[in-house]
């Protein structure tokens, strides 16, 4: 698991780290749309320049992102090969055998898909590497605010999200402790056949669920004792502020968007 | 004397516990500014009692009055407003994702504006000596530190009453001593009324008055010295004996008779020096 860069946070102090999380979430979302808008080599060059610029501004080493891609590389290669072999006919046919055609169209498409994958993974890795999970949660909650008008319990969802995030490390520790305790009693995790392996999960899962429910019970009692009635009528300690640098990122994004729209022709 | 809490004929039975009620006709008062310890062995009903006072349990018989307000489903939030409560498990009462968020949680519930929250959170953390840990996450803190954060959460809302529901029972001796020293300080400086539910004998020795609970009944109400003087009877009730009482018993076995009654550590020390045992 430790190899998995995606979803981890790297504490550094850079412009990107200090951006408003709401802004970063919105930017990442719009960036994905941008990636699908691009359809020519020139537009991809612009996108790559934007991505590398963002990575440079975050002061995170490029190697980190490449390592982040490594666990997903097989998925990418698999998709690219499928695209290469089974794309619809179009352009010059390089090679043909039975129902497999490698066409000019297919090669270009595969190249595009490879770049799209790379860019989206890099940008979303940048989001999580430069933003604390808690800030992402606060940002998400704040972005969901308009959903109140369609009766979505946004504040309750935000509370649930923040409790979930707060208990992730606690439950991870707990799971490790239970596993070690069960190992000490002779349970082999990850040994034997498939059914045996699945069965050995029971002495981990059942206590883990029990413990989570007990914790929930204790926590809700403590929350009530501290005056928690409902999630709506509360003030907020943690607030987000939109700063000038956040506006600047949208200017850059706007320029990128215009350039890509122009370059779609080539 | 001014009573801040009055409990009258309180009874409670857990829904699926058979015939045995958890509390039977418990009646007592707590004076303003007093440190009251409630002791009893496991399952004697002392935690149930604490929860009933805070309105966390819907008891059917008896009345609880806190600061002049009688506890009922309508007044429960007014009652809770006056009470800060710290529970046993430091991990399970930590709501916030970081230390400062947790301290602010109670303030958020009271809809206090952010400008007012910031200094109050900072001061509360300063008070318990956790100011340097404001942005830390709970998983990076020790049990004692988490309980201090819980205490800061109580300090921030500045209630009249603090209930410690076995708040030190999961801490190591050092964490326990630090926590008790902090509570003692708050008690002295802010004239908090403290109810501590415990079977830690040192914690009980700090109290002005002890209530002994056994099988859901209040069986004794006296200052610590009177109750500790009973020696062996404490063991029958599932309580420990204070260190000086153990020492006195050990001396009696060896033919030396210290004075009857409970001696504090200082009194015992003074007596030992006078008795000339060291010559």
TrEMBL record, chain A:
Keywords: Cell membrane, Membrane, Transmembrane, Transmembrane helix, Transport
Pfam families: CbiQ
Topological category with respect to the lipid bilayer: Multi-pass membrane protein
Keyword Oxidoreductase assigned: no
Transmembrane segments: 25-52, 72-95, 107-129, 149-168, 247-263
Recorded superkingdom: Bacteria
Cellular localisation: Cell membrane
GO cellular component: plasma membrane
Record keyword Phosphoprotein present: no
Gene Ontology terms, MF aspect: transmembrane transporter activity
Primary localisation category: membrane
PANTHER family: SLL0384 PROTEIN
Role summary: Transmembrane (T) component of an energy-coupling factor (ECF) ABC-transporter complex. Unlike classic ABC transporters this ECF transporter provides the energy necessary to transport a number of different substrates.
Family the entry assigns: Belongs to the energy-coupling factor EcfT family.
Subunit structure, interactors included: Forms a stable energy-coupling factor (ECF) transporter complex composed of 2 membrane-embedded substrate-binding proteins (S component), 2 ATP-binding proteins (A component) and 2 transmembrane proteins (T component).
Name recorded for this polypeptide: Energy-coupling factor transporter transmembrane protein EcfT
UniProtKB/TrEMBL annotation, chain B:
Domain of life according to the entry: Bacteria
Membrane topology category: Peripheral membrane protein
Pfam families: ABC_tran
GO MF, one example: ATP hydrolysis activity
Cellular compartments per GO CC: ATP-binding cassette (ABC) transporter complex
Subcellular location as annotated: Cell membrane
Chain ranges of the ABC transporter domain: 5-240
Entry keyword set: ATP-binding, Cell membrane, Membrane, Nucleotide-binding, Translocase, Transport
Family as reported in the entry's similarity comment: Belongs to the ABC transporter superfamily.
Name of the featured protein: Energy-coupling factor ABC transporter ATP-binding protein
Native species: Candidatus Levilactobacillus faecigallinarum
């Amino acid at each position: 698991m430790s190899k998995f860069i995606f979803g981890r946070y790297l504490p550094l102090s850079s412009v990107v780290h200090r951006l408003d999380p709401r802004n970063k979430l919105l930017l990442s979302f719009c960036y994905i749309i941008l990636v699908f808008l691009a359809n020519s080599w020139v537009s991809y060059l612009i996108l790559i320049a934007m991505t590398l610029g963002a990575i440079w501004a975050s002061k995170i080493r490029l190697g980190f992102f490449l390592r982040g891609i490594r666990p997903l590389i097989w998925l990418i290669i698999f998709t690219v090969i499928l695209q290469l072999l089974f794309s619809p006919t179009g352009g010059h046919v390089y090679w043909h055998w039975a129902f497999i055609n490698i066409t000019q169209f297919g090669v270009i498409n595969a190249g595009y898909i490879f770049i799209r994958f790379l860019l989206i993974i890099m940008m979303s890795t940048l989001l999580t590497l430069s933003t604390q999970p808690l800030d992402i949660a606060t940002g998400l909650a704040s972005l969901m605010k308009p959903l109140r008008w369609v009766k979505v319990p946004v504040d309750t969802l935000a509370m649930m999200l923040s409790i979930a995030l707060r208990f992730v490390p606690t439950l991870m520790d707990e799971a490790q402790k239970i596993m070690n305790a069960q190992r000490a009693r002779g349970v082999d995790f990850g040994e034997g056949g498939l059914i045996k392996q699945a069965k050995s999960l029971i002495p981990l899962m059942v206590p883990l669920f029990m413990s989570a429910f007990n914790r929930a019970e204790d926590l809700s009692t403590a929350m009530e004792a501290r005056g928690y009635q409902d999630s709506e009528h509360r003030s907020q300690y943690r607030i987000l502020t939109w700063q000038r640098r956040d506006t600047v990122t949208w200017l850059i994004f706007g320029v990128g968007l215009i350039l890509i729209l122009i370059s779609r022709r080539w | 004397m001014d009573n801040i809490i009055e409990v009258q004929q309180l009874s409670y039975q857990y829904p699926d516990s058979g015939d045995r009620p958890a509390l039977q006709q418990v009646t007592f008062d707590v004076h303003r500014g007093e440190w009251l310890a409630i002791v009893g062995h496991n399952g004697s009903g002392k935690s149930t009692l604490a929860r009933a006072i805070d309105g966390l349990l819907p008891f059917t018989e008896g009345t609880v009055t806190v600061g002049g307000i009688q506890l009922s489903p309508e007044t429960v939030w007014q009652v809770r407003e006056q009470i800060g409560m710290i529970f046993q498990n430091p991990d399970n009462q930590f709501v916030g994702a970081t230390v400062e968020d947790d301290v602010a949680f109670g303030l958020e519930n009271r809809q206090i504006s952010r400008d007012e929250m910031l200094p109050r959170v900072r001061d509360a953390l300063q008070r318990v000596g956790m100011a340097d840990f404001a942005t830390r996450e709970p998983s990076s803190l020790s049990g004692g530190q988490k309980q201090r954060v819980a205490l800061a959460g109580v300090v921030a809302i500045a209630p009249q009453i603090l209930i410690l529901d076995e708040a030190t029972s999961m801490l190591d001796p050092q964490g326990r001593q630090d926590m008790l020293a902090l509570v003692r300080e708050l008690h002295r400086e802010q004239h908090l009324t403290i109810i501590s539910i415990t079977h830690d004998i040192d914690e009980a020795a700090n109290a002005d008055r002890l209530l002994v609970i056994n099988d859901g009944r209040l069986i004794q109400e006296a200052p610590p010295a009177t109750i500790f003087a009973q020696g062996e009877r404490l063991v029958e009730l599932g309580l420990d004996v204070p260190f000086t009482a153990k020492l006195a018993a050990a001396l009696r076995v060896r033919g030396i008779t210290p004075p009857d009654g409970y001696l504090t550590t200082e009194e015992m020390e003074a007596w030992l020096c006078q008795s000339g045992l060291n010559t």
